[in-house]
Amino acid sequence: MHHNQEEQSVNPITAQHWPAHHSDSNSLGSSLGSGPTDQQPPAYSKLEFRRHAVIDDYKITAQVLGLGINGKVLECYCKKTGEKCALKILYDTPKARREVELHWRVSRGPHIVRILSLYENMHQGKKCLLIVMECMEGGELFSRIQARGDQAFTEREASEIMHDIGTAIEYLHHMDIAHRDVKPENLLYTTKDSNAALTLTDFGFAKETTLHNSLQTPCYTPYYVAPEVLGPEKYDKSCDMWSLGVIMYILLCGFPPFYSNTGQAISPGMKQRIRLGQYEFPNPEWAEVSEEAKQLIIQLLKTDPNERMTIGQFVNHPWISQSMVVPPTPLHTSRVLTEDKELWDDVKEEMTSALATMRVDYDQVKIKDLDTSNNPLLNKRRKRPAPGGADRGGDGGGGDGGVVCNSQREVTFSE
After folding, report:
1. Domain co-membership, 118 together with 247
2. Active-site pick, 181, 236, 340, 400
3. pTM here?
4. 88 labelled ligand-binding
5. Domain with 87 in it
6. Rounded distance between C-alpha atoms, residue 126 and residue 138, angstroms
7. Which residues contact 114 (CB under 8 A, 6 or more apart)?
C-alpha cells in the first residue's frame, strides 16, 4: 500500500501511555521465567486508537523502512519534536487487530520495539490501523556483524546478544504470548551506536498461548522453523526456543544449521532434517567454539518440544546469564557473512516470500518446483572450499548430517 495525502492518523499517546525504555532489561531477567507460575504479568495501559489524521501529527515520507508480515513500514517525523519514527500501515482486519493488540500489550517490555501512537484512519475508502513506532536506525543484527570487517566477532559478544534476545522472549512468554517468527530480519538495533539496544520487531504472527488458544496453525520462515510446526503436533512457546537455537547457531558460525540444497525455500529433504534434528558443528567454523555453547544449542534444537529448553532455563544458563565469563574467542561469523553478503540477501528475500504461502496446515504446504525457485546461498556454500582445502559441502562437512544431494530432485538420506 502506497502512502498519499489521504492517509490519516492520531495524536501521540500521552506520557503515561508511553512504554518504559529498554534499559530495564537487566532487572527483568531475574524477575521472570523462573518465578511462580501465578505471578501477575506487568500491567499495561489500555489500547486506544486516535481517529484524527496521522498527517496532523507526523510528516510521512515515501521512504520504505521495511516490509512486515501484514504491512509496509514507512519513515515519518513527529511534527512537534522532529523525532524520526516508523509508521506501519495495516488494513483493519481481525488479524491486524490481533497484531496491534499483542504488540501493544508487550510494547513496554525490554528489547521490544516500542509503540508510540496508534491511529484509525481511512485510506482509499478502507479503514486502516496505523502504528507509529520508534525507528530502528541501527539496522539488522547480522548486517552489523557482517559490516565489522577485520574486527573479529567473539563468542562473548554472541552470548551478550543472545541474552538480549532471550530477555525479550522471556517477557513475551511471561505474558503468555508466542512471537512465532523470531528471525534475523526481525532483530533490529535502535541506533548505529555501538551500545545500541537490540530489539525484537514484527508481531504479525504473534499469538496468545493460553489454554483455550493453543498454537495449532503452522506459519513460519523455513530456516527458523521448529520441527513440530512442520507436522501435525500442536506447538507453543517452544517454537520461539527453537528459533533461539537457530539464531545462536548462525551467530557462532555465520550460516544456518539446516539447508535446502535444492534451492527450494524448504525442500522435502530439509523438512525431514529439521524434523529429525539433523545438523552438525563442522570445522573450521566450530573448532574453537566452547562445548558449553554447543550443548546449549543442542538443548534448544531438541525435536521434541517437551524436551526443549524453556525460556526460564535459557536465561538462567551460565552461557547466557554470565556473559562476562564466556571466552572472547574470535569467530568466523563476520568472514562467512561477508563472503555470502549478496547470497544472504537472496535467502532473506526467499524467506520473506515463503512466509505468505506457508501459513497453512502442514499437509497443505506447497513446495515450489526447482524451476520456479532458486536459493543460491547453499549452492555456493557447497561448492566453495573451506580454508585448508576441505569442502564443507561433502559428507560430514556442511551441517547436513549424512545428506546426499540428488541433483535431479531433492535431498535424500544416506544410510
Report:
1. no
2. 181
3. 0.70
4. yes
5. 15-29+46-134
6. 33
7. 18, 19, 107, 108, 133, 134
